[in-house]
Design a protein that fits this description.
Rossmann fold; about 300 residues; Thrombin, subunit H; Response regulator; six-stranded antiparallel beta barrel; 2 domains; globular
Length: about 300
């Protein structure tokens, strides 16, 4: 019985590792190859046969949409399942991908269940799912185990301070943002440290305390669902003068209580970027040059 082959395409090694770890945990017999952009994926697709492609949209050299369009122009790749895994969840982007012949769509950030659902749907359509499920699946775990923690943090320990007390009910995601975040939102037209953090558990308004080309220091209101270190996420940044939005893919590198007390209402998150896209890096550079971050943050101010 031949193995099912999957090609994972993303310019961020963190995302590629997350997807591969998830698939290998659930489908022990699966064969996975990866590529850092559409150009590299083209070479692999021309040389080997794959049952499924999981592909990012925004990548240097060749985007996911360009790769999808190319695949649908090749006779032997016209019907190959092609699932887009991207932070571009806007309706117009979804329509564009559908028109190009996409088989499925997974929005970043995603959890294991969301990804596996799309993979199983795609493989079921081509009659490959039963072959994988017949081999007993390993127990599902987090997409990253302890063995990969050092690789993601550069061998440095990550300190997490999580409040021990139950989260206050006033911190629910559907409640109005706190005054500090509301004030930042009101000044968004001036581009002052306002953003939205998208996690698989929901979206949160955030204040950006500091920004570099590698990471952002965020302050968010504590909710009933605490974020976790290594959770993948998307940070939406908007520069108010031209309403330009950058969707930055990354993961939570560290989480600490913002206030020196166990029931702190605020969390400080270190959000590490994983994108290698030149346009996004240029956008971050311009934000840094403009000084559009909150130099000081006072809870409730």
């Amino acid at each position: 019985m031949s193995k099912v082959s999957v090609l994972v395409v993303d310019d961020a090694s963190f995302i590629r590792d997350l997807v591969k770890k998830c698939l290998r945990n659930y489908f022990p017999g699966i064969r996975i190859e990866d590529a850092v952009n559409g150009k590299k994926a083209q070479v692999l697709l021309a040389r080997e046969t794959f049952d499924l492609v999981l592909c990012d949209w925004e990548m240097p050299e060749m985007s996911g949409l360009e790769l999808l369009t190319w695949c649908r122009e090749q006779d032997r790749l016209k019907t190959m399942p092609f699932v887009m895994v991207t932070s571009r969840g806007d309706k117009e982007n979804v329509v564009q991908a559908i028109q190009a012949g996409v088989s499925g769509y997974v929005s970043k950030p995603f959890n294991n269940e969301q990804l596996l659902t799309k993979v199983k749907q795609a493989l079921n359509k081509i009659g490959k799912l039963d072959a994988l499920l017949n081999s007993a699946p390993a127990k599902m775990t987090s997409a990253f185990g302890n063995d990969s923690l050092n690789a993601l943090t550069g061998g440095q320990a990550t300190v997490v301070t999580a409040p021990a007390a139950p989260a206050p009910s006033r911190g629910l995601l559907n409640n109005p943002p706190p005054r500090a975040v509301a004030a930042a939102s009101a000044s968004a037209s001036a581009g002052r440290g306002q953003g939205q953090l998208r996690l698989s558990s929901g979206n949160q308004q955030c204040v950006i305390k500091a920004l570099s080309l590698k990471e952002a220091l965020l302050v968010v209101k504590r909710t009933d669902t605490l974020p976790q270190v290594l959770d993948s996420a998307v940070l939406d940044l908007e520069q108010g003068d031209n309403a330009e939005i950058a969707r930055l893919n990354g993961y939570l590198h560290a989480i600490v209580a913002y206030e020196p007390k166990p029931d702190s209402e605020w969390l400080q998150l270190t959000f590490r970027f994983v994108d290698q896209d030149a346009q996004k890096l240029d956008y971050i550079s311009r934000l840094i040059a403009r000084g559009t971050v909150q130099k000081h943050f006072v809870p409730g101010a």
